[in-house]
Design brief:
The protein is α+β, with helices and mostly antiparallel strands. The protein is about 25% helix and about 20% strand. The strands form 2 sheets. Strands 1, 2, 3, 4, 5, 6 and 7 form a 7-stranded mixed beta sheet that branches. Strands 8-9 form a two-stranded parallel ribbon.
């Protein structure tokens, strides 16, 4: 007891104001001492304390890393292959906005990645392009020439339909007759009808009767598409043409991934045939030009292609597979097939039988 408590005890003992404090027993003093020495409260005899878990950090971390590695392999297998092959798999996959106007420069350089059957556009700017018809930009319509706004809108939509029927139809790509595309051409335009009749029937086309001038075709015995997607990028523009006609110009690049036919999937080589087409179509005033409703006349049609053949015309694209047709190229002339900032180059291709320019990328 403290001095103050002892003095209060003596005083209260004399005056009888309170009971004298009781001296704690030996048991109580021992319990108090244990309480002071312990860190917490005493544990009840019926209290259950769960066992403290054993620390297995090493095993947990190893298991977590293994799970992450398996998930990454499943989701990003091709990119991981590129890493282990010493390739940069950091290709930007962000989709590009529609091409509403002529670009000012070529696309930026992409990592040099090998195309595969699972990713046929890998390592190509086309990986960010839209699929099929979605990559052909159609501008807003306004009254032009003899057509009002609604007629112009319908003509633009049909012009894109022609490009789809001529360059994206799976049957046409296999070499079948482009029936849908032909149905949209003015049957009274004699020079075009003569071209169609000759180009689609001859076995020895010339530079002026090559069906590739208008239609994309592969010989099924030589090449087959990889997947069912063709990447496209381009746009339609229009103005008033001759005799008040609506003149529509299409400038579109098509990228066709193909593999050798008949290999049963054993050969993993994928070649991208890249074709840029410029087609000028005239929607004529029926009061001034003999035509049929829903059809247009062709003013001009040209193409520039890469990996489509450098020999004399055959009527089909001829992809240069590694052990297939040997095709020479002019090393002094280099072209970027993805550069849409320049006019269509009509100096290359199967129309003249001369050496092709060398593509800087494909």
């Amino acid at each position: 007891m403290s001095d103050e408590e002892w003095e209060r005890f003596l005083r209260e003992s004399v005056t009888g104001e309170a009971k004298a404090p009781v001296e704690p027993s030996a048991r109580a003093r021992a319990l108090e001492r244990r309480l002071r020495e312990s860190e917490g409260q005493p544990e009840g005899w019926r209290t259950y304390t769960p066992a403290r878990p054993r620390r297995r950090t090493g095993r947990y971390v190893a298991g977590l890393l293994a799970a992450v590695a398996l998930l990454a392999a499943a989701l990003f297998g091709q990119q991981l292959v590129g890493w282990f092959d010493g390739e940069d798999a950091g290709q930007d996959q962000t989709p590009l906005a529609a091409e509403s106007q002529s670009p000012g420069k070529a696309p930026d350089a992409e990592p040099r990645l090998r195309a595969t059957r699972a990713e046929p556009f890998r390592g190509s700017p086309a990986a960010r392009w839209a699929d099929g018809a979605a990559g052909i930009h159609v501008p807003p319509a306004k009254a032009t020439g003899w057509m009002d706004t609604a007629q112009v809108e319908r003509a633009l939509r049909t012009s894109r339909d022609f490009l789809v029927a001529a360059g994206l139809d799976a049957r046409v790509l296999r070499g079948e007759r482009p029936t849908k595309a032909i149905a949209l051409l003015n049957p009274h335009q004699q020079d075009v009808q003569d071209y169609l009749r000759t180009a689609l029937s001859t076995t020895k086309p010339t530079a002026t009767t090559d069906p590739l001038l208008l239609f994309s075709r592969f010989r099924p015995a030589q090449a087959r598409p990889v997947g069912d997607v063709v990447k496209t990028r381009g746009r339609l523009t229009y103005r008033e043409g001759k005799r008040g006609a609506l003149e529509v110009t299409a400038d579109v690049t098509f990228v066709y991934p193909v593999a050798r036919a008949g290999d049963g999937g054993r050969d993993d080589e994928v070649v991208r045939t890249i074709v840029r087409r410029e087609v000028v179509m005239s929607w004529d005033d029926p009061a001034k030009v003999v035509t049929e409703p829903g059809t247009m006349s062709l003013v001009s049609y040209t193409l520039d292609m890469t990996n489509g053949g450098c020999s004399a015309p055959t009527g089909y694209f001829v992809p240069p597979f590694a052990t297939g047709d040997e095709q020479s190229s002019d090393e002094s002339r280099q072209v970027d097939p993805y550069d849409r900032s320049k006019p269509v180059d009509t100096n290359d291709g199967p129309r003249n039988g001369k050496d092709c320019a060398t593509a800087t990328r494909s």
